[in-house]
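[recover] target loaded
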């Protein structure tokens, strides 16, 4: 489809001799939020790591905006406009909040646009402006998650992959982060979201995929998956 920004087909990957992903296929269309839900160990994070080329994989197609990225190193995938906010945040704890954000723009030289993106991040997460001179490692878990998202946005991506943004975060800050995700989509950002909170993710998503033991087992709109009895019983507690 012409609006398919990311296309993954028959993705297989593993760690050592053991495959953990088995012929995974999915698409993300321009301007939508797509969720990937499933139990711990289902292969969701590994799927994102393969897409961003951190983890080696085998597939018949891995295409971003019409470009084959199967052989690109991870830093070139970032340069293409695909950013990955990893599970566990992975900020630079000894750098200040401002320095962490500046690291997200390390490949850029467009000072005016960088300043504009910094303002955008501060608009989404005002606390990052308030804590600009504070070391990243002294922030709360939720604030560090905001910083990780902000750092990715400073790279000016067109597709943002987010891995478990609500994990280990206080409910009030979880609500703030999900509100920011919705705002990003409303502003035109395309998002692939891995999230343990299946209900919150599907409510926010245009479409979703369910992953079990390294395979996609269900797909549909967010509403369809919320109403699916199998999803309700396995992931929603209904």
């Amino acid at each position: 489809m012409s609006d398919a920004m990311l296309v993954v087909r028959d993705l297989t990957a593993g760690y050592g001799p053991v495959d953990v992903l088995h012929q995974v296929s999915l698409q993300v269309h321009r301007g939508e939020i797509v969720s990937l839900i499933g139990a711990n160990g289902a292969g969701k994070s590994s799927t994102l790591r393969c897409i961003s080329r951190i983890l080696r994989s085998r597939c018949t197609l891995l295409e971003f905006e019409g470009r084959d990225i199967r052989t690109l190193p991870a830093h070139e995938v970032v340069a293409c406009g695909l950013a990955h906010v990893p599970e566990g945040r992975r900020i630079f704890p000894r750098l200040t909040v401002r320095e962490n954000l500046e690291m997200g723009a390390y490949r850029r030289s467009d000072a005016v646009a960088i300043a504009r993106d910094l303002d955008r991040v501060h608009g989404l997460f005002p606390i990052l402006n308030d804590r600009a001179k504070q070391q990243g490692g002294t922030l709360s878990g939720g604030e560090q998650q905001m910083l990780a998202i902000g750092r990715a946005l400073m790279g000016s991506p067109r597709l943002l992959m987010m891995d478990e943004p609500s994990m280990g975060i206080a409910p009030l800050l979880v609500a703030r982060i999900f509100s920011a995700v919705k705002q990003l989509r409303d502003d035109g950002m395309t998002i692939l979201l891995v999230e343990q909170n299946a209900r919150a993710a599907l409510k926010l998503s245009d479409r979703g995929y369910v992953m079990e033991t390294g395979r996609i087992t269900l797909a549909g709109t967010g509403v369809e998956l919320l109403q699916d009895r199998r999803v309700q019983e396995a992931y929603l507690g209904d």
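[recover] notes: The two ends are 35 Å apart (CA to CA).
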